[in-house]
Design a protein that fits this description.
The protein is an alpha+beta fold and about 425 residues long. The chain has two domains: about 180 residues, no CATH class; about 220 residues, Jelly Rolls (Sandwich). Helix 5 crosses helix 6. The chain binds 2-oxoglutaric acid and fe (ii) ion.
Length: about 425
Amino acid sequence: MLPVKKKLRKSLDSSFFEPKLQRDRRGSSADPGTTKGDAEGSTAEYVSEEGDERLDTDTKIALLASLHPSVSTAALMDILLSADGSIKATSQLLATGQTTLQARKPPSSTNQSSLESFISTQSTSTTAAAPKPPPKGQTMHLYTPALIALHTPCILHPTFLLPHLATALLQELLQESTTFPPPGKFNLFSRTVQSPHRSVMYTTTPATTPYYYQGITLPPPRAFTPSMSTAAGLVEKYFHTLEPRGRITAALVNCYSGPQQGVGFHTDALTYIGPRAIICTLSLGVTREFRIQKQPPTSHSSGTYAIHLPHNSLLVMTAGMQENWKHSIPLVQRVDRHEVSGDVRIAITFRWYRDDYGPEVTPACGCGGRMVLRPVWGGEKYFWSCDGEYRGVGQGCGYFKWAVFGEGGRPVFDEEKGKTVVRDDNE
Ligand SMILES: O=C(O)CCC(=O)C(=O)O
Ligand SMILES: [Fe+2]
């Protein structure tokens, strides 16, 4: 057997960073058998008695990149090497600077296989040959819905609402936005990514348990405004064509005042929306660019795609996008003024906050607060982890548990213990 360092190097030379699973729109129907096999294979590898040794480097880096999104892949690779290929040691080094290792216990399943049946019931589009992605450092602008569908897991409907409803909604939300807290205070992105903009959460029904985001207890969500409810009904009808079980129950409304407001590259937390969530964004006012980047970046696909989002367009991030791509609204030098909103853009990101992912089932973290649900890049596996990194307390406590899914991709709740079932990486 090769020593770990040699194995790591060897892996770097070959298919380094190539995502193992293609469950996004292009790949899902291509080879479901491979998908399943791969998932099972890596589970078996991961929990081997020899610790991490049989888990391949790609998966290790994908997992670490998901756990520590602000650390570059090169740095992760270095630290992983210095930790003799141990994920746990690497994560602990990043989290606390300590390297104490515990022997892994023999394997047991991480029980994420029930996701397979959940995924198989989601609608997917037909397979298309993957076109060449933009090279590193370059941006490919996609100006038509057909090109967007060909290159990305997004769908763009350039005109969604009747014009008068779009205008009424924009006017209503411009008025609403005068009461949005300034950037930084209860800003859902402020600690993770560059996010000079304002956002507020809305839900269809009042929450009985507070929502958390990045360790902060959020203010109670607001109720949908009348025009938002009308628009949500129409979005829901469309949503059903992609996810028949889904409902529109929440919306994060973002307000960008001028070209120097935006949001940096990020993925949306899955804590309340679950794996493979679909998010529909209605854009109002000024046209802005929406940029996306496949994750983790590879030597042949680290470029960026730009999609232009005009007033009254509906952009759909399809199932699997949060598991495979980051998105952003980049800052720009200038915008074309909109006749109603001037230089402001409002984006309503309609979401299905699932009943079975309510805040009451979010597992608690070792250092207080609640954990966040994230995918290993590729969506092969999911885990709950400390969100301390986002609370400005370094990398957090490094608390990490594998997610366990029941039927329909829902978390498994242990009634007796009164908490959501999670699994240790050494179980
Ligand atoms: O403004 C947008 O279109 C995207 C906003 C966003 O990324 C989010 O709400 O998570
Ligand atoms: Fe987002």
